[in-house]
């Protein structure tokens, strides 16, 4: 066991926590036989003491000379007093006796203490505070001065102790005063008296709290093992035999001993544990176990009020963590990532198959794992000082390699030979287009680009390869076009595919026959063929350009019968046998209509010559080309 070395022979007063003055116990104390702490409550004011305990008068609020109160705070009482808002233990609701001394020195506290053991040494102690602040002191201030006396009922004084003048302090300060006394062999009752030796008036105001009577015995120091460790931690999975030992100084004439155990419900005697050494099997249940040695004269060992007790030695039993280890295995492929996982602790330590710690994370990962890294991975999970281990074994299989023996790009209808290595049995997927999906080197003839994955069925490792299939280009020459003689039209062809080349035939009247959308300006009707060539094939489509005759539209004529420009005739319109010509006045009245364009207009409407002016015309060639429109002027 790991132990904190504890020096035997330390002379100390057990459980004292503040300044202690002469005559208190220098050995081991027992549990308090009497403990007067004046109680506690939610109200600032506490109840009066029982009749006969004090000669002072009880008041609520601030006490004047010769008065006392029981309260948890001195706030609002006297400006010369410290404001104290908790009792000696720091309990804000704990009551204390607040005494303002009488003018005449007298016994101000007396109590009968019963149930003591004969022939036993006891420590009487009380905590006292001088309430008066230094800055409030005057030449007339009296310092508290108290004599403690332990007497028998017949007036025999067993022991006295005087505090002397209790000094003023710069801040509220509790001081414990006390004395030790021995009960006669035939007495179990004593009387405690507290006498105020200073006059009242200015000063001489005190707080009193935590009056105790405790058995005082020899020095007893206990610990685990020969090294006397006062604390020890163990795990439920590691119970063992241990030894509690005690060093006891002289003190009793006929000493007797017994070991006691506290598991949270109070101290109980351990059957049969009656010496200064106790050998036992450590408990396996989770919990805190406190041990101490009790001692008294042999005749009094069975009476709890007679027992002095040692320091407390503590054994803490912690639940051993249930470590677990898991992984994304147990079989991995070379190059994959190993993901480890653990539970059961608050901290972790992982070792690899070589026994080397490589991570303190709960869930570490090892990327690109190699064949040399297979084996057992062990985690140590720790919790509250206890630990346990768990392991997981990982097998790493060789990497599977898949490739294509030729170019991975083929033409539609072509084939590629696939090859896999690194396993014993193989399964390719998808099986579509494969000559055999269970051999190492199938022939693939996919109709679309396909990624084939091969799995080595003995190791479940995989690799993949993609065969790209070049599809025939999808083209359109863009449909037929219509123009009027002398116009230019862009051929609106489209094509999808990769690495395509273009050629238009014939190339006449094209600005560039090697682009997808050249400009065409043929003088007459013509049909163009688009040839699109991919790395695998050539496809074609045609587009016709329909060329219509050019029309010449005069802008003015003079129907005055002089034989010169007497009619409005549109040159070339007669080439459009279905064309429709309409003339309107400026106000929108239709004045002339002609179909086919073979008739010249003489400027009349209903047999009458129209007046000079501007007229509007619209020509629909009826060939899906845009309508022609403009103005014609009649000038006689």
Notes on the structure:
With 636 residues, the chain is mainly beta. It has 6 domains: 31-217, Jelly Rolls (Sandwich); 220-318, Immunoglobulin-like, CATH 2.60.40; 324-397, Immunoglobulin-like, CATH 2.60.40.10; 401-467, Immunoglobulin-like, CATH 2.60.40; 474-548, Immunoglobulin-like (Sandwich); 556-634, Immunoglobulin-like. It is 0% helix and 44% strand.
Shape: elongated
Total beta strands: 51
* CATH architecture assignment of the largest domain: Sandwich
Largest sheet features? 8 strands, mixed
Low-pLDDT parts are 1-22
Mean pLDDT: 89
> Looking at this structure, what is the CATH superfamily of the largest domain?
Galactose-binding domain-like
In terms of DSSP E residues, the strand content is 35-45%
The total count of helices amounts to 0
CATH class label of the largest domain: Mainly Beta
Q: In which range does the helix fraction lie?
A: under 10%
CATH topology of the largest domain: Jelly Rolls
Q: State the separation between the terminal residues, measured CA to CA.
A: 136 Å
Integer tally of domains: 6
C-alpha-based Rg, rounded: 58 Å
* Class by SSE composition: mainly beta
